[in-house]
Design brief:
Layout lengths: L2 H18 L4 H9 L11 H43 L2 H4 L23 H4 L9 H19 L1
Length: 149
């Protein structure tokens, strides 16, 4: 797209905007032709413009003062936080470092190479009713397989 095409499109847009704005010239002419009373005090346009400019300057000064006063508070808050950092020790804030060595594991007895039935007996409990356990295992296996589908 060439620059001339862009320029033409912008001109068309500006003409469309201008056509959409209502014409207030008749309204302004009626106000100007209105009979003026002697009791009405009129200010020249330049006075109104100077007054608005003064208000704008006052607002800008207020905004600058407010922004500097807030930045001053943040530095004092930072200083207060830094003073707190020296009061709290690092040991209170952080966990101690882990040791870099593994403690020795002391076995109470030598590991067995083979187990006898008497050795196993305290750890083994034979189920008394095997049918209940089989049904329980079967139902859990079916539930597990149904969930895998």
């Amino acid at each position: 797209m060439a620059l001339t095409d862009i320029k033409e499109k912008l001109i068309d847009i500006m003409k469309g905007i201008k056509d959409g704005i209502p014409d207030f010239s008749g309204f302004v002419q009626k106000i100007k032709s209105r009979p003026k009373s002697d009791s009405a005090r009129r200010f020249p346009f330049s006075t109104v413009l100077i007054g608005l400019g003064g208000l704008l300057v006052i607002l800008l000064v207020l905004l600058i003062v407010i922004s500097f006063s807030r930045s001053g508070r943040s530095t004092t808050d930072t200083n207060e936080l830094m003073s707190l950092a020296f009061v709290i020790s690092t040991e209170d804030l952080f966990l101690p470092a882990e040791p870099e060595f593994l403690p020795e594991f002391l076995l109470e007895q030598e590991p067995r190479s083979s187990w006898s039935i008497e050795d196993i007996r305290p750890f083994w409990i034979a189920p008394s009713n095997t049918e209940i356990w089989r049904n329980e295992i079967r139902s859990e296996a079916e539930r597990f397989l149904e969930g895998a589908r």
